[in-house]
Every structure is written in structure tokens, then in C-alpha cells.
Amino acid sequence: MTNHWVDLKNSDVLLIMGSNPASNHPISFKWIQEAVDKRGAKIICVDPRYTQSAAKSHLYAPLRSGTDIAFLGGMVKYILEKNLFHLDYVLNYTNASFLVNPDLKLPGDNNGVFSGFADGKYIKDTWSYQTDGEGVIKKDRSLQDPNCVFQLLKKHYSRYTPEIVSRITGTPKDKLLEVYKLYGSTGKPDKAGVELYAMGWTQHTVGVQNIRTMCIIQLLLGNMGIAGGGIAAMRGESNVQGSTDHGLLFHIWPGYLGTPSGSLPTLAAYNEKNTPKTMEKESLNWWKNKPKYVASFLRSMYGESVPLDEAYTLLPKVDDGANYSWLMIFDQMYKEKFTGFFAWGMNPACSGAHSNKVRKALAKLDWMVNVNLFDNETGSFWCGPGMDPKKIKTEVFMLPCASSVEKEGSIANSGRLMQWRYKAISAPGEALPDGDIMSEVFFKVKELYEKKGGPNKEAVTKLTWPYGHKVRGQFHYEPRMVAKEVNGYFLEDKKLENPTKKGEFKEFKKGDLVPTFAWLQDDGSTSSGCWVYCGSVNEKANLAMRRGQADPTGLGLYSEWCWSWPVNRRIIYNGASVDTNGKPWDPSRAVIKWDEEEKKWKGDVPDGAGDPGKGRPPFIMKSDGVASLYGPGLADGPFPEHYEPLECPVEKNLMSPQKNNPAIKRFDKPGVGSDMDVYSGVTSCDPRFPFICATYRVSEHWQTGVLTRWCPWLAEMQPGMFVEMSEELAKEKGISSGDECIVKSARGEVECTAIVTPRFKPFNIDGNTIHEVGIPWHFGWITTKHRLYKKGDKFPEVYTKGDAANLLTSSIGDANTMIPESKAFMVNVVKKGVK
Amino acid sequence: MTEKIKLYDTSKCTACRGCQLACKQWNGLKARQTEHKGTYQNPPTLGPNTFMLIHFQDYVDSKGNVKWLFCKEACMHCTNAACVTVCPSGALYYNEEFKTVGMDREKCIGCQECVAACPFEIPRYDSKTDKVSKCDMCESRISNGLDPACVKACPTGALKFGDKDKLMKIAEERKKYLGEGASIYGEKFVGGTHFMYVLKEDPAVYEGLKKDPKVPFSLTVWKSWLKPLSLLAAGGVVGGSILHYVLHGPKRPDPEGAAQDEKNQGGA
Q1: Which positions ≥6 away from A813 have C-beta within 8 Å?
Q2: What ipTM score was computed for the predicted complex, to two decimals?
Q3: Is there a smaller number of Cβ atoms within 10 Å at the N or the C end of chain A?
Q4: pLDDT tens-digit profile of A717-747?
């Protein structure tokens, strides 16, 4: 989230699209309800299905899964045409005035693709900016130049008329216009609109571009950086934000530093390639500091005794252009490219798209370690449905671990709030905190390398591990020490000039904690495990443990409650909440306010604001200092364009001759995926699978249900797989509510109980009736009644019905992130026993 | 001491069911094996181990607008509580401090008088324990200055607990705010309930709500002499049984289903 949970209360219009917070983020509605009660805020819900969130909305509009860009593209056009945008904001804080290479061709003039498309990917030469002799980007502040971003944006979205959008999305035209009008009303400087999304937007082949389209809208309306504004990326798990911050994904090191590739053999080459430069005179270009964060990270890994260059060399590199995302891991596993696997707090046999392929892939391993609270469909895959244990070689080790209340540590929630949690009770039996397990594994692996050697041995043997102590031969990991290392230390005595106050010097002693990341150094004199968390722990306290409840602004910033990254800033980009003279766009909701007497900003920790009137553009994480209406960095285009989901119910993309996102990785192409990677309805509709299907969640279960299915009260409320469908479709298929049904895709089938409801309606897509159904993703065979229970197996108190929704989903991912397209794929539904 | 009520605002309920779970947790109620029956609502009805429930109701209004209505069902804590009137053993009683209806299960003799008498079909009989159970407004919590568990769990403020005067004012304000069609449910019958609703739609729309709940006439007439008689009987058991037989005829095998049938036919 650019803002934070409490801030939802400051909004005037809340657009719920790509999410269902009433079900899946129930506490969010505390603040949404407060916005409604106290500000008279309006809730818009756009969803294929009338959800619990829709039930609380003032305006509901249905749309066909996978057509969000068409829907939002129409809104961009509406905002521009009706002059609803916030001109001062757009002009000063976005790249609207930047002049783009005249050779750029937009999809409307280029058969549905941007210029530069060849062999499945883009060469982005024509996406560049025009620059003057000094390399400064050329601009037209009148926004009239036909090659300026503003005009290109206008031209690109001029094709997204309400008529064509309605034919694509199935949203009635009057509903479209109602949504556009209401959300467009937040373009006024004293109005704020926020968008709430979750996996409903990310899990598409155009997932990143879905969000990009909304970013464009928020920037046009001046909604970024202000209280009650922003983009609320609601995480699907309480610590997804934290795990992403700390480098869970393959393409980043902790703190969003790019993972180095093999073609960058030295630290100098890495820094040269990855540190952005700019010729824009006023731009702060904060990422110019990247080498400091990289050096400090390397120090946290290998300590002072390993020179920085060597430390860089030791860390693993990815192959250039290679992708190591989830879909690829299991594809490679299926192809027997590796032999061992740690499933740590994960249940890929249910959570992985195309779970049948995942389950088969697990059978190709020599060994697997399953670290979890309970046995699950992954750990016991070898005795699951369709498996013959005699033919499976995989040796599985189950390591029971402590639950979140049985250990200490921090989580970082969607609002980037790092909250310390204390241990409440001890873990049962042999279960250990993850950190203890990981430490034991580390020491053993290190010992083996030391004794037997191995490739890149020092990468492991030279790692520092100062996080705890041994008690009776067992290492106990100490999370408070980790928090300090994440924050970072001075590794030598150092006298430094205050980075924010010229002429003021400060002395640090070896072992001092670094006060903020502005003090981190690129010479190896500081460490920091994750630079964005620098400042979270100081000599006096771990700030994530704070529980202060002061709220001087009344905006709910609660700046003394725990700590949020970066630098305890609650609303990022808040430098854009004031005009170029430093006056808040909306004084009644001022996130930051300049105190003329004290010569400093008050309120939230200012972001990129500089001194008022000095002309610093506030989006300091962008090298040019402004936010991107035009985003040439992505794999699939500088502006979002509507493409159909890979599996879809239409013959043609009404927008252009290019049916699907051209930059996606198709696993069904020769030499890419495997025999199991099949799709339906790609080039032409497949009558075997005529209905759209999306997966989603319910309040009562969490993730694949590994924790919640074992909780009898939760299983009692939601006891199994269901399929929601319209009354019209049910009639067509002879299905009544409560009937057992089979939902089937090109890859698998699941048994579900029918919920026949007017909350799903057939779509009118360009004159054709198209049905959509939906299924929850929390279930799995291990808590079902009729599976084989071996001796010693735990029986659930309340059984659940049905197996994983992901047996149906496909191995196709977003062009940028490879997140699977689980929110739009094709299925058939039949009553059980009917062919 | 002040009269307290619990107020439920349907317009603010998101059906997250935190309340339903919190109720089970605080009261130590076991889950039962349920089946999916084509609705999110589960368990399907109140039961000996389910003191409250969120109803899920698809509803299409006269203009063709689709709605999804959520409505909480639990003991109404009547001012003139039929269950207290008929209870021969003193298991059901008025909480003198808050005017809610408490329940001492130790004293329950399983006569099921309350099951038959309650105009809201709230008390549920468990043949295994031969006891009746129902929501007691978390008496153990409210007596110690805490909100009932369901109220504590509610994230949106749909559930509130507090002084009757204050909450009725809030209810009136909400009714006004919600405009046409909105109403307050609970104040106009059985002497006023201590669980009240702000309804966004007409009360007739909600499947789970009684349209015109009344204490059975027969009960009002006979209670003055039958109840003392029953208390005279040993342990109250005999009297309770007589009372039950006189008023409602022989005992039926399925208490939950039976209660349903009687109410539908009784037209109380």
C-alpha cells in the first residue's frame, strides 16, 4: 500500500476492484465504514460476482474477468475528455509533458502492439524520450506537442469508448459511466479516491498493467501521496509485504536491489548497470545511493573480513534472461532439473497453479523437506489421489515448526508497518521456530562444505551468523539480533557529515546502530541487511515494539505505533500532497505541513518534499523525479493495452488484431513447458470448456487452508469446495443449489457443491451470452473424510470436501512477474453423474 | 444500574462471521460436521452448540436490484421473556442489572418449556445432555465490564453493546441516515428486546426475522396458576412436563425441526 490501513477512513471514494476486502481483509471495513459514516464516502465495487464487498457498496458494476484494462482505459478517456484531471499535479508531478521518441507507434496504429515487437518480446528503442544535447528530457509544458506523454495518452485511450468497453467487459454502458463519473469526481484538489486491489488484479497475464492503468488514473486525479488516496495493494497474507521486502522473490535482493546476473561479474559492473542516472537538474534521484545499500547488504552477509568485491562474487548470480519464478521452479522440477526441495511454510500441491503438474513434479524429486505446522497435501503428495506410493521415490521429511504465537519476531503488513510480536506460548512437542530450524540446517550444510568442499564453497562457509547461541548443542536463533542486523551497524569508528544538514558532523563508534539509511556508506564501513528497514532499531529501542497511540494530525497516522518503512513514513509520495509552493492541496487533510518558524515539515515524515518552492519533483525514487503516466520500463508496453486472457470465451480482441498479451511466456510452445502444459480456447473458443472461471477466497479460510481446515469452527462454517453460478446457467445445466457438480478444465477437475445465485449474472459480450463461475481455493484432499488415513495420521474434527481449485488453473503467467492467471480461465460445469 | 442492549446494524455487517466464531470460542462450543448446502450459511440453524448465526440471503428487490442480505440471529433478550415465564426451574432468569435474559444450565431440567414458548425459536434442546442452551449475552463478560464476545469481534461497528438510551439514539440516527425502508426492529414487541436491529430493508424482507412475534396467548392466561403449580412439584420436573403437555402436546423426537413446525403452524 502506498498509504496504510487506517488511512482508508480519509477517503471520499473507494474503488474496490480486483479484490473483495469485506471477505478477505475484514478489518479494512472498519476504516471503510468510518469513511462512509464520517465523510459520507462512497464505495464502488467492480467485480464479476456480487460479493460481500459489493453488498456494502453504493455502486456495483459487473465486469467479465480479465477485462479490467478495457474498463479502466475507458475511465482514462472519460477523465481526459471531461477535464476531470488535476492539471497542476499532472503538469508538475508526472511525466505528462515529456516528449517521446516520434518513432514510437501505439497499438492502435500498429496491429495491437507497440513498436519494437519481435520474436515474442519488445526491443524498446522507440519507447525512449527525446533529449537535448546535455541529455535532459525535452518537455512541452503546454501539453500540446503530439509526441508528449499527455497527448500520447489521450490518443492511446481515445479508442476505449464506452461502447467498445461495454462490448468487451459486459458492463452495461450506464453502469460504466456512473463509475467513471463518481470516481472521476476525486480529481478535485479537495477530494481523495483510493483503489483497493488484491489478487483479482495481479493474477492475470496483464496483472502488472492492470495496476499500471489504475496508477495512471490516480496520477491524473492527483490521488497519489495524499491522505485518503493512493493504491491499496492488500496483501494475501499478513507478512507478504515483509517477505517481499526481505528478498523472497528471485529477482531481488533484500530492499529491492536487483539480483545480479552472470554478465555482471564485479561489484563495479553491477553498480554501473543498476544505479540510475539522470540529467534532470532538480531531480534528487534517490536510487543514486544504491551502491551504499548494496555494500551494506554485502557486509551483513559476509562481515568485515571479506572484501566487498569478493562478497559480491560469492553471492549466486542468475543467468541472464533466465526466470526463476514459481511456474518455472515446478516446470524445472517436473523436468528433473533438480533433486531436492524445501517446502517451507508452503503448500504448492494446492497453492501452485496447475497443481496436477506440481504434484507430478514432486514425484521426480529425490527428497523433500516439508516445514509446516501440519502435514499437508504437499508433504503427503505421494499417497494423495491418483498416486501410487510404490512408484514414488521421493523421500519426505516433515519438520514441525512453531506457529506465529509460539515465537517472537516482526511482521510487515500491507501498510509497510513493521510490528513486533512476542511469544505467547511454547511450541508443542518437537516443533521449533523457523529460525532455529534454518540455523541448524545452515550449520550442518556449512560443516559439510568445510569437510567435503564443493562448488562456490565460501559462499556458505564465509557467511556470518551472529544471531543467537547454542544451548545443549542446539542453536537458538535470536530475532532481536536479526532485527538489529537488518537495521545495520557501523563497522568502524566514523565521523560523517549529516546527509540532511550540510556542515553538521556526527561521530559514530564501531558497533553503533545506523540511525537511518541516509547514513549508510558504500565503502564497507556500514552494514544493513535490508536498507529500507534502516532506522527501525536504535540504541534505545526496537521501534517495531512501540505502542504509542498519539495522533496529532487526526489523520490516523499513529506515527508512534510500531514503525513503518521507509523512515517511519506512513504515506509514501506525500511530497505530492502539497503544491509546488508547499501548500497542501487539501488543508483539511494535510499529510505534511511546512512550519515557517521552525523551517521544517510537520505531520508525516516528508517524502521528497524538499524545501517549499525549490522545485524539487517529489517522486524521488524515479530517476526523473516525477511519476510515470508513461512507463517505458515494463516488458509489455509503456501504456496498458487491453488483451484477452490466454484462455477466454471470445474469438477476437475487439480492440485490436492482437488477441493476447504478446510478451507472455507460453508453456505450450515447443521447448518451453512440458507435455502437461495445455490450454483451451486460445486461438478459437473451445466448446468443451465454455465458461469463464475465477478462483477466490472466503473469510473463514486462509491460503490453502493448511491452518484453517484443521480448525473445526472454521471448517464448520465453510466445509468445502463450492461453485457459484448464475440461475440462468444452472437452469441450462439442470443444476440446483446444493447439487454436487464437477468443474473441469483442460488440466483437471474438482468436485464442488453448487451455489446457484442471482449474484452471478450472465454477461452480454458483444451480443453473446457468456457465463462465468467462481470457486474458492482453500481446500485440499488431506482433510477429506474418504481419503486413506494411515496409522498415526491426524483426523480432522470437522472434515472438508473437495480438492484444490488449482487443479484447474494453468501454467501461464503475467508478462512481467509470471504470477499465474488464476482469475480467468475456461471450464465446464456439469452435475455429478451427468456427462 | 443501567439497562443494556446489543444493537446490530445490518447496513454495517459484512458477514465476516467473526462474531459467530467468537461466540463459539468464548462459550466453548464445539463445532459440528456440516455439509455445504448451496449457501455460505453454516451451520444451517441455531443449535445446542450454536448460539448465534449469520443468515445469508440473496434478494432481488422490486426494481430488479440484486442484494445480498446478512442478518444475525441470536437470543433477543425480551423484556417480557416467555422463556423466563415458563421456566419451572429458574434456569432462565432476568439479569437484574442489565435486564438481559441469563441462563444457568446447571438448573435446567430439560423440560423444553422455553423451546416451545419462545416466539423467536431461540432456545435449543440437546438430547445428549438433556439441557437447553441459548445466548446469555455473555453474562460472564458483561458482568465484568466487557462487551459480549460477538461485539468484541465485530470489525465494522455493526454490533454494539451499551446503555439502552444511548444505543437507541444511535439506532434512531442510523434509521434516519439510511432513509426510506429502514427501520428499528425489537422495540415494539415483547416489551422491547435487549437485542435490537437497525434494518436497511423492510423487516418483511429478511427470511430469519419474525414478522409479529408474540408471547402465546395461552401462556399469558395460564402462567399465573400453572407455574406456581409446577414449582410445587418435586424438582419441577413433573410440573414442567405437565405444563408442556397441556400447552403443546406430546414431545416430538427432533427438537430443532419440531420447534420450527410448531411456530409455522401456530401463527403466534
Answers
A1: A205, A325, A327, A664, A665, A819, A820, A821
A2: 0.95
A3: C
A4: 999 999 999 999 999 999 999 999 999 999 9
